[in-house]
Fold this protein.
Amino acid sequence: MSDMLKKIEELYEKKERISQGGVIEKIKQQHAAGKMTARERITMLLEPDSFVEVGAFRVHKSRDFGMDKVEAPSDGVVTGYGSILGTLVFVYAQDFTVLGGSLGEVHADKICTIMDMALKMGAPIIGINDSGGARVQEGIDALSGFGNIFYRNTLASGVIPQISVIMGPCAGGAVYSPAITDFVFMVDHTSQMFITGPEVIKTVTNEEISKEALGGASVHASKSGVVHFRYPNEESCLQAIRQLIQFLPPNNKDDAMIVALNDDPNRQSSYLTEILPDSANKGYDMKAIISEIIDQGTFIEVHKDYAPNIIVGFAKMNSDTVGIVANQPKVLAGSLDVNASDKAARFIRFCDCFNIPILTLTDVPGYFPGVAQEHQGIIRHGAKLLYAYAEATVPKINVILRKAYGGAYIAMSSKHLGADLVLAWPTAEIAVMGPQGAANIIFRKEINNAENPEEMRAQKIKEYQENFSNPYVAAERGYVDNVIEPAMTRPYIISALEALKSKHEVRPKKKHGNIPL
């Protein structure tokens, strides 16, 4: 055998050892816990045979605490690039079978290297987190590694899409990298996120709680809002990431993938004529309206379990990606509260970063009242929504379906915040407040002095409705551009999206604004 063949054989042996990851016992434990290994996850995520590994031969440099005798293939993280449905993506996956996926200096440097490459190439980066946290044996060098990752997350924000996938423990400082990224995915029962674990909490506050109840997928998807998507197993989670990539541009200069869906852009929907209840105080499912106007079956809801009184997500319209923000009348009557404001504002800012047009569907009675909301800072949080819409320079289209009252009318992509086109259904009620409240204020004397106050109140409410609770006063003043038949909603929106593709809006030069965080 020639010297070259011997060296090639040696190369294959080294690669085989590296690709195995941890010892067989560790791999079996990983599988027994319902989890895949790092390389299995990457294989399922990317197109077959498209993964190119970077930094496979790197190992830690630690010599303290017996680490000089510890073998750690790829230093516990697999990094590289590949493709998803023809889109170049960069990926890293922590390997829990190697030192518990703990992060040390070299481990972090490998992640930073792949993040730098993604930024240079203008491609999305996907990080799969499954780690015991900082590698204690490496001390401050491990903490330095976390800081270097956070810094790159921030530099990449708004330049390339960043997706974090939690597929195991993610604790302490490690949670802040996912928190900075655009979208966080979690898997039920096998992944947790928390700053301090149950043991520390019990010691400090004497509270007892399990890891799952403290930082499981359900908690973060519905209560904290940290997580945007949750799935029952790793397979469905990885498939969902592949689907999301189809809706995102690779960077802030390129367009999202165009998927030819052959759904007639001029398709009308008679169902929309019938969907609104006769009573303005009755709820209905806004998602039914969304499904009627988008390219059929393309809606991906973001933050589904969090602040369900507002809906945000991506869809295709005439095969192009659009971001949708819509009030949900079946939850809290579609009113805006602290969490809904945060949820919508963040989504709007993502769309604006990546040049995704924003379609708003408005049916909002106002900001949700109450002492708790005021004390939680509805003023500050509600201002985020105003700021996000006003700041966005992408095409902004608003369709007012029913209620649009007071400050919430302004907040939901009104002309006053820079909407390019505002359409309204004939059922739209655009006013300072609802007819009952307005009548009680405006006609207080007449009502109180009437022989039959209740009859007079009903008469004045009806009078207010006829004169002001309609779209025509706003249309007369130019705050609504057109009043349309509900059945024609899809054709009107698609026509507007086409007309607005060349939109260019210049804002005052500044380093950045100061959003009321």
